[in-house]
Design goal:
3-stranded parallel β-sheet, Rossmann fold, 10 helices, mainly alpha
Length: about 210
Amino acid sequence: MDGVVIDSNPRHRLAWEEFNRRYGLETTEAMHQRMYGKRNDQIVRDFFGEGLSGEEVEARGAAKEALYREMIDGKVETMLVPGLRDFLNRHREVPKALATNAEPANVDFLLGQLGLRPYFQVVLNGHQVSHPKPDPEIYLRAAELLGVKPAACIVFEDSHSGVAAGLAAGMQVIGLSTTHGYLPGTTLTVDNFSSGELEAWVLAELRPEG
């Protein structure tokens, strides 16, 4: 979702900076880079140390995401990755899953404000798997729920951990350069869903053999 459906990482950066200041912690660029593609429990422990209880980790993650939603409320349409809505409409007949490390409240908030929930037959968040990306569990579970073999799936990703998860699941991965300009292992990397190169590649993949 983040970096693929919406270009949210600039807002997540600002939210983490403001939230961390509540604890007297200044957020460095290195911390931001480590944050991309991670689940909140991983980020909180990275930023604040391993000494926090599970309850405190969960509470801090939830508080940061509440701040993030407050910051973007009413602005999410402007954050939509260019071309996505048209892309989803053009390929409406293809089964789709949203598989994200994001918090459940963020998933519901964003899909609701954008009206995108009907496009996805399956929606999985980071709390519905034991092992977050870069583990392939969430993508393998998504394929299972869609009733599709992993080798037949195409993953769209913006982060290194997400690409690693898709590849480990045995899927082809298309990179979106919203977060990183270089994503090793991807079949193709494009700026957004308006890419003619992307559309040509997808149509070739969907074309029946023979």
